[in-house]
Amino acid sequence: MEKQQFDFVGKDFAIKNVGKVTGKEVYSGDVSIPGQLYAVVLRSPYAHAEIKKVDYSEAEKMGAICIGPEDVPDYLYNERIVSIPDKTYRDRTVLPKDKVRHVGEALATCAAETEEEALAALKKIKVEWGRKWKPLVTLEEAMEDEAPPIHDYVYLGEEKVKIKNNIACTRDIEVGDMERGFEEADTVVERTFSTPRIYHLQMETKSAVCVPEADGGITVWVTSQGIHNVRILLGNIFNLPLNKVNVKRVTLGGSFGSSIQMNSITPICVALALKAKRPVKLVSTREDDLYDHAKYPLITKLKVGAKKDGTLTAAHCRVWVEIGGHNIQAYPYLGCVAGWFASLYRWKNLKYEGKAVYTNKVPTCAMQGYGNPQINFAVESLMDILAEELGMDPIELRLKNYVGKGEEFWGQGPTVRSIIRSCGVEEMLVEGAKLAEWEKRTLPLEKEGEIRRGIGVARGFHTSGTGGPNPGETIDYSGATIKINEDGSVDVLTALMDHGGGTWEAAAKIVAEVLKVPYEKVGIYNVDTRTTVFDVNTHATRGVYCGGGAVKYVAEKVKELLLNYAATLFKDLPENLELSCNHELGQAVIYPREIPENYKTLGEIAEYAHITSWGTLAYTATLRQKNCPPCFITHFVEVEVNTRTGEISIPRAVILGDSGTILNPALWEGQIIGAFSRGLGFALLEETKYDLKEGKLECKGMITDYKIPTTLEMPKLDNLLVRSAHTYEPTGPFGAKGIGEAALSSVGSAVANAIYNAIGIRFYELPITPEKVLKAWKEKEREESQERVGDKLNEY
Amino acid sequence: MSQFRYISPKTKEEVLKILEEEKSEACIVAGGSNVLPYIRDKIIPPKLLLDISGIEELNYIKKNGSNWRIGATTTISDLISSKIIREECNILCQAAEQFADPLVRNKATIGGNLADASPAADTAPPLLALDAGLEVESKGKKREIFLKDFFLGPRKTALQDDEMITGINFKSDSLNKPGCFIKLGLRQAMAISVVTVAMVLEIEENRVKDIRVAMGSVAPIPLRLFNAEEFLKNKHLNDDLIEEAKNKVYEEVNPISDIRASAEYRCYISGILFKRALEKLTNQTS
Ligand SMILES: Cc1cc2nc3c(=O)[nH]c(=O)nc-3n(C[C@H](O)[C@H](O)[C@H](O)COP(=O)(O)OP(=O)(O)OC[C@H]3O[C@@H](n4cnc5c(N)ncnc54)[C@H](O)[C@@H]3O)c2cc1C
Fold first, then answer.
1. What is the average per-residue pLDDT within B244-249?
2. Rg for chain B (alpha carbons), in Å?
3. Both B144 and B214 in a single domain?
């Protein structure tokens, strides 16, 4: 491990979006353009119904500008274009042409001078419905032979694909010889697990503002995790040259992955603006948003074989995901689930079969982990089950089999892999066990009383970005322009998004560290696609590692320019010059090595370059990272289960993270704690339930009945320990990897394992609600009393 | 959103006059924490919104000897910050402290909570257990309705179109006994109750001298459990008796299944919370 002294990296400073704290920040819904119209959207009350005709003539008579299915381009697209075109399924238009495929799907829209007028006009839109089908709500129903097809044909790249049994796509992978692997096993365990659909509940609902420009182009302000993909998609859909679409980066009010794809309302807003020839603003309500996106659920049938000593020999993993009415890239999702699965343990021989199935529900997309928490729940639960069968300590079994340094990690499915170069797994399991007092753990049978306490462990990870030695199926590169101003301050122009996790602060620190410029003097702003080079997206926990990596690369180029230019002023060679930060002056300074008193400040040098018309010290480039290092996480969670009511509380947790060098310590901890809170929701509380008859959300789109944990569900601060592993990622900017999605991956599994330890009941389905606990507890009591009766009978 | 008219009178008399004129066209708004979600959910059609939150004369907590009076627009936060409520009517304080979160508590009123007549209204069980009455007024007319007779069904009350609740009253003889309120929700704050129980209990020489129990979210209305009360009166408390009383509870409750819990779970939990309240109070008295 390399030990480095840093000026800025690893220190906490003020956040860059000061407006977030003062209330001055502008989110997409705050953008207002003179002369703008307000748009509202008509959404389907039916889950699966044929649209015969949308008649908006009455609404138009009221002065509204309207768009219906016939007005939108025929172009089929997928709103998520992170994968290469050949691996991208395309099944949707801006508004559905023939039929609606889930309740809440947008089917028409209108814009007027005020929101009130727009709503009044919306009421006048008449929809003539044709056939209505019974909604396909469950996976099983959807795959039946008689089930009505939700899509007949879709496109995979340029190839037309027929959809059979509503199966959107499949993915099968084999490594080694699974059959032989199971033959070598002494013990085989097999279970089925399932995780629910949950809603992102990001604070900001999706919004868009579009201005049609005089030159035929458009300017758009959107809620997005990647503005360049929005630009490319809008260009493709509306047949505009890609330089005529300018997408503005606006601060995000959280996203949790729900804006990796272009939001469904964005092209609707653009279509209206193009028709109206006026600016249009469209802000989603919370109800609109709840009917717009959800996290992928997962059913996993997992079979694992091991030798007596705990060495794994084979695994068979079958997964099913019901994806809702549109395919927002279930294909890479299935690939990623395979990747997380394959990279958790050394299975040696594995077979993976994945199926994604259309249903008449809200389309699903990535959310904090892209399949990782889902498959982790299955694997980490089964590891505990296996440990018990083998009579081994769960930690020992994990230490024996985890995939670590020198081994291969699948960062984004089977096609994006790289070798692990930094790994804190062992340190975290061993140190975590000490902090959590693992050795004091008792068995379920040894516990008594109304309230039972248990402890569980689980480990997980996420990739840091989707780079690899080979590009594979995923597009991954970032870029920046960095320029030094005439007073020595620095501007970083990058499309790299910050969801609130500190990506901006990390990028600014990296630039400060390279150029030795005080952190406050590095500016990073909301820019747009026209003034920045491509950045794929802030997803896949790639912000620091990939985005930060690119920023570092560009900063180093600027440094090279700077030293070359400074050398002419010092009449020396660049390699004889030293660049450092003079904290007293609050400036970067350059001096001939060994003669610090002869320094010139960066401000002086830049000013001189300016007045002598030498030019601007600036550089622009993009960079693709060639690795996808895993950031690891380990959760030790204690639970208290009330056996009378089934209620579960979390008195204590120890969480350890491995992110290599940590750029933003306070924000890093914030990510871990925030993910823990939301992970508790995933484990214990959250689910978007559907009414099976009509395919509507039971919560009706209202968050009164979509609950996520509050701060009161968290352990008290003193009982929430967060620690970092001591690692350094050689391929990362200043040794850094990611954290965001890793932090959530094993929360659900650790909670489920803790519940087992508390009451001896294994739950295979999340969320583990008080009702489910109570029911299982009653069954167990019944069985045990029957067993006791049985034992007595046997005695006679 | 639809069009609404909005009036914000300054006196009770003004409100009563408007109610007389507009009758069911007027919708009283106190804190608005029910009304606004209803508008959003299109449960309330376009109406005249009559905002009573600014009427000072309806915001009070008074104690005169053993007679208590609480004004209709007293907020849940007002209950929590009232010293006499905390010290002498703690059961209401307990309910207020488990109500929503601080932001909602600042807006939500006790009158609105009762008038809304949700089976889950958190101030209803303690007030039922306190044998509270409602002061109800219309233009030129005053009457009193016992809280136990006030709730007719979910969102249905004994109020006439031109009437409003002006205050709540109860006697503190029942307060000499300790009381408790227990709430089970899906999370620790901002949760509509899955089941609640409020209980006051007086024990004399190991016998139940007096007991009053009410529960929330276990029936179409907040429920007084008269049968369970009668069953326990004058009996020696012991484990077997409590188990038997639990069966009385199961007979009296009649919950529904909804997104938050199934009827079976609610029914089962009602017995558990009943027992827990009883144990808690007997531990306190002994
Ligand atoms: C986020 C959230 C959390 C909540 N949590 C809880 C909770 O934990 N526990 C709980 O019990 N409730 C809860 N509620 C419901 C609501 O806050 C309470 O019922 C509250 O007490 C209502 O009071 P209000 O003053 O806001 O009533 P409003 O919304 O103003 O009115 C409610 C109803 O009562 C009528 N009304 C109001 N005042 C009078 C009056 N003086 N005379 C006649 N009719 C009147 C109105 O016309 C309306 O029909 C919650 C609501 C929200 C939005």
1. 96
2. 19
3. no
